[in-house]
Amino acid sequence: METTAGVQSQADLADLNLDLERQVAERSRERDRLWRNTQDIQVIINGAGVFQAVNPAFTAILGWTLEDVNGRSVFDFVLPEDEALTNRALELARVENLPVVENRYRHKDGGFRWISWVAAPEAELIYASGRHITAEKEQAETLSRTEEALRQAQKMEAVGQLTGGLAHDFNNLLAGISGSLELMQTRIQQGRLTDVDRYMTAAQGAAKRAAALTHRLLAFSRRQTLDPKPTNVNRLAAGMQELIQRTVGPNIQVEVVGASGLWPALVDPSQLENALLNLCINARDALPDGGRITIETANKWLDEQAAIKQAIPEGQYLSLCVTDTGVGMSPEVIARAFEPFFTTKPIGEGTGLGLSMIYGFAQQSGGQVRIYSEVGQGTTVCIYLPRHYGEVADDDVSMRASDLPRSEQGETVLVVDDEPTVRMLVTDILEDLGYAAIEAGDSATGLKVLQSDVRIDLLVTDVGLPGGMNGRQMTDAARVHRPDLKVLFITGYAENAILGNGQLAPGMAVLTKPFAIDTMAARIRSMIEAAREAGLQRRG
What are phi and psi of 252, to 5 degrees? Predict the structure, then answer.
């Protein structure tokens, strides 16, 4: 016979079991309510990606019911472009919790919806939860399109500013050139030849200023033709100190501080001189009451963090910095300083292309330029140039055209250029030097001459040519037949990729348009003389 205590214990146990059953049932109902009422998709799939169950949110968001998807693969509903991503996610979810993965599911109406998934494995099944993010994706895409439209508008505004400033400056220069030529013609017809020299000087001055303007534009756009050479920047800066001092005036002290053991740079020395002079002129303008300009060089080893800050690859650089004790620049001015035609100078006292030219030159040379300034505390502008691993040759002095003897050997030069005026000028220079000249207006005609048996001692060619080939391609084809052909490229646009980024093959040189007549004559004569000496050495 059971004791009273035993009966009570059984009753308590029965009550406990009943309570546990109620708790389990309640939790099951809670899970069912969560499964039915959650706004997020809930699915159960097996390891192969076959649907076992989906909640009502799946149907509400994608249109498919359990009957539509039960027993079918998820790949029947994923867009083809997202199948590879989904397959990788499924492989991961079989063994561990899945980080967020976003893919697109086809809607029953024919469209698609973006779903952001998380998932976890349990036994042989995968439990996944998906959040509908189509609206977020569309909003982000709209924002991206808006930002791109804004960037495009800003680009067009910059182009408008550039072309407006360019048109203004060139119209002024063309007025000086065309007006001078007209008056020259009138005075010649009137027999008043004493006035001709004055108008000729005015036209030549305007033409030189136009050439300088296009040079600065090409420098800004990183399309100027560079002639990089191993350069001792200390020697270059020291050699310019006297010129800079005369340019800035006696009330400004110019000091050059060259770092000991400065690395050489592979850079166009004449363009670096031009950049340095421009920086010193800017510094002078920031010193209305006088002061000091310091030109300083240094070796810089930029690690990854420093290189990211300067927006250039990490490595070894040398810096050329110009520091003034002038009025300084505000952050707003610094932010716009490299924009073309932006200037704080009064109208008529600056084109606004000086710093933009320096920026383009530094970029094209594989370096960078940076401004450090505070209002009232002065300004430092630094040009960073990659270190050159090699020796620097002694400076050579080019021969002047007047120092070169006339040709008496019957040498022949082929001139290929699509501009008749340029061909005329080069031909006249050749005749003055005693050479025979052959002209061609396109690459096809030029190559035909080069592949003939006609004597050609030098090829003078533009880089951009009609006729199916550029100047470099025509030259390469000609050198198959004439491997020792000397070539002088003349170009007004820096097709450096075509020319070999400053690494021209032996026997090739480049000259930038517009060129001085003496410079062209000296270059032609020296190249032919070099070819003649090389030929004599081979025969000897």
Answer: -120, 125
